[in-house]
Amino acid sequence: MNKFGINRFFFTIIPPQPVQDFVSDLKKCVHSTLGHGFQDEFSPVHIALFKYSNKTDYSLYDPDWLAAALLPFDIRVKGLGIFKHGVNRTIHLQIEYNSPVPLTTLLNEEPIIPHIIIARNLDSDDFAKAWEKLQSISYNNYFHCNTITVLKKEPHRWNQHLALPATGNQSFDSSPCMSIESII
Predict the structure, then answer these.
(1) What 3 state SS string does the chain have?
(2) Over the stretch 77-109, which tens digit does the pLDDT of each residue have?
(3) What is the CATH number of the domain that holds 126?
(4) Treating both helix axes as pointing N-terminal to C-terminal, what angle do 17-34 and 124-134 enclose, rounded to 10 degrees?
C-alpha cells in the first residue's frame, strides 16, 4: 500500500512461450539495430490490460465476483503497432480479444489498449531506425487465456500478487509470488 493507503494493481496476461520467444527476438533485433539498450528491453513479456486502484483489494478475493468475471477467452496477437507520446514512440504488438464479461466494467476502470511492449519511449532517431527494421514483419498468433495475472505496486517494482483463473471456478492462487521487474 502506498503512503495514501491506496493499493495499485495492474491486470496482465502472460502469453504462451512461442509469443514470448517472438517478442524476445524482436527486442534483440531492436537492440542490435540501435547498438544500445532501451526502456523495457528486459521487462517480462506480458499483455497489459488495465490498472486498478482501491483502498482495499477484497473484490479480488470474492468467489462470486470471480465466477462471473473470469471466463476463458481467446486472444489474437496481430502485428506491430505504434503508440505516440509527445515526440517519442513505443513499438508494440497489437492484441484483440473479447472477454465475455469485461473486468474493467466490473471494476469501474477505464481500459487501456491491450498490447505487448517491444520498445518503449524511443526518441525520434531510435524509433526511425527500429521501425525501418521491424515495419515489414508480419505476425499473427492465437491463444486461449485461462489466467489473469494481477501485479501489485510495491516500492520501486510491480510484484505478482494473484493468478486469477479464467475458468469459472472459484479457487485461485493468492500465495506470495516472486518479484517481477518493473514494467511500468
Answers:
(1) CCCCCCEEEEEEECCCHHHHHHHHHHHHHHHHHHCCCCECCCCCCCEEEEEEEECCCHHHHCHHHHHHHCCCEEEEEEEEEEEEECCEEEEEEEEEECCCCCHHHHCCCCCCCCEEEEEEEECHHHHHHHHHHHCCCCCEEEEEECEEEEEEEECCEEEEEEEEECCCCCCCECCCCCEECCCC
(2) 999 999 999 999 999 999 988 765 566 666 666
(3) 3.90.1140.10
(4) 130
Query: What is the pairing mode between strands 157-165 and 147-154?
Result: antiparallel
How many domains are there within the chain? 1
108 domain-assigned? yes
Highest mean pLDDT among 5-19, 42-56, 94-108: 5-19
Is 0.85 surpassed by the pTM of this model? Answer: no
